[in-house]
Design a protein that fits this description.
20% strand, single chain, binds D-malate, 242 residues, six-stranded mixed β-sheet, alpha/beta, 38% helix, four-stranded parallel β-sheet
Length: 242
């Protein structure tokens, strides 16, 4: 198994496809996805286009859907919620499909959706993502950060490093590119103070300006959930049976 870290979807090769793509958007899309599925959501369906989300979700009875839209860290008008994982309580999401569109995370998913295996990871479900990779042993794995509108995000690359570190400890030959070792080093530098890292990150500072301190702390809870979102249809993520 060879791991390749790409800091943003735009940096992934356009002439190749991995055996497994791991989409990472720690603040907050992939944390929200893991939390919603952990709390009983039937599925999370990702949309890069909010109008398409609104149109497709119309086909679902209101009591069986939740529309989650975020742009710039703020909720989108016409949706039931923004993109806060803390909003995804069992009471709200159990048995429902979460229709999700965010600034970057759902766009990253779109970029890699044709890979044979697509999972999503964040700090909250890092271990179960590593366990899946170790069990499946895909030959090539892309760890894809979502970034922010094409720019680098510290938190996503650090999470890629958190995943790669556990893989590297089991197989030192798993490094596929320099970015992977760089991500490991970043995570090792901050693993004892992820909240501190997130508070210094550009999107973390945006979240603090929006009063989303509790979300930021929640997203830093490493290995707190054993939920692994797996793509079961284009753009549709459901709990993997691990
Ligand atoms: C993203 O897609 O970039 C994030 O999830 C934005 C957010 O929810 O704060």
């Amino acid at each position: 198994m060879k791991l390749f870290v790409y800091h943003t979807p735009e940096l992934t090769p356009t002439d190749a496809r991995p055996d497994c793509a791991v989409v990472i958007d720690v603040l907050r899309a992939t944390t929200t996805i893991a939390t919603a599925l952990h709390n009983g959501a039937e599925a999370v369906q990702a949309f890069s286009d909010i109008q398409k989300l609104l149109h497709v979700s119309e086909q679902w009875p209101a009591e069986k859907r939740l529309r989650a839209g975020e742009r710039g860290g703020k909720p989108v008008e016409g949706c039931d919620m923004g993109n806060s994982p803390l909003f995804c309580t069992a009471e709200r999401v159990a048995g429902r499909r979460l229709f999700l569109s965010t600034t970057n995370g759902t766009r990253a998913l779109k970029r890699v959706e044709t890979a044979p295996i697509v999972i999503t990871a964040a700090q909250v479900n890092r271990q179960v993502a590593v366990d899946f990779l170790q069990a499946q042993q895909p030959e090539t794995v892309w760890l894809v950060g979502s970034g922010w509108e094409g720019a680098y995000s510290l938190e996503d690359t650090a999470c890629a490093g958190a995943i790669a570190l556990l893989c590297y400890q089991r197989d030192p030959n798993c490094l596929g590119n320099d970015e992977t070792l760089g991500a490991i080093a970043l995570y090792q530098q901050w693993q004892q103070d992820l909240v501190g890292l997130f508070q210094r990150a550009s999107h973390g500072q945006r979240m603090l300006r929006l009063g989303l301190d509790a979300d930021l702390s929640y997203c830093a809870n490493t290995d707190s959930l054993d939920a692994l979102p797996l793509q079961t249809d284009l753009g549709v993520l459901q709990l993997a049976k691990v």
